[in-house]
Amino acid sequence: MRTFSHFALAIVGLLSILLLNTSTSAPVVKSSPEKVVEEHSDKLPQVIKSVRLDKVYDLAGEVLPMHNFDAVERLDRELLVNSYWHSSTVLNIKNSRRYFPVMETILQEEGVPDDFKYVSVIESNLRNVTSPAGAKGLWQFMKTSAKGFGLTLSSDVDERYHVEKATRAACKMIKTYKKRFGNWTNAFAAYNMGETRFAREQGRQKMDSYYDMNFGAETGRYVFRVLAVKEILRNPSDFGFYLDEEDYYQSMADYRLLTVDKSIPDLGAFAKEKGISYRMLKLYNPWLIASSLTVPAGKTYELKIPPRQ
Fold this sequence. Notes:
The protein contains twelve helices and four strands; from the N terminus they run ααββααααααααβααβ. It is mainly alpha-helical. β1 and β2 (about 60-65) form a beta hairpin.
């Protein structure tokens, strides 16, 4: 028992010496957090900071009510969420170079504000995706709305995936909503939740402006998300995104149009005949959703034929 006690005391003494040496040799940090960041900024992976809100924000020329603290805080949330949602935001910046020039031309021709293109980013992240509810394409059309605004849907064609045609259909839709609800901000919100539901909420809440209305989470955030994406994609470096010219995704504007007035039973053979791959044919014409194309009597389709590989 005495031997064990001596051993225990020796261990305690040794630990005390080690702790004393450690505590006296360890540096004492007296700098402020700001000073530490400044001194070690070259070693930090990133510095998280808040976004600036000391400017006027507008959507389609309609100014966000900056005197409304609730509206400002909701915008602040979306700016922060989207600026620090790195992978998705970088991909959107890269993809914008591919799709925005096409959209901008159509929006101008249709008399729709240029800011409407940012709705497609919120809807699909500029990808031809399908939502759980069945909405498809860059503009996320449901079947009924797509057909109502002139898009063709069949067993081998889905023009919700047709960039130009779907963009024109989206323009028709948003102009319809603008006419009914009085301004573009309301129209953008109606694009998200649907014309009927937005009108019902206006009547129930006795309010005319989106900013004065109370919605569920998705529509309540929607307009602010569009505003945030607009700000980030227009000024990426302000939010820490630095892309060189070669970082953007390649434009697909180099193609020739081939008018087709007869059915194509085998798109693989057709692509091979044109000297392109099946993959490129589908990439340039994502609205071709089958391995063949049926062309009804009296109808024609225009296929984009990319440069030979």
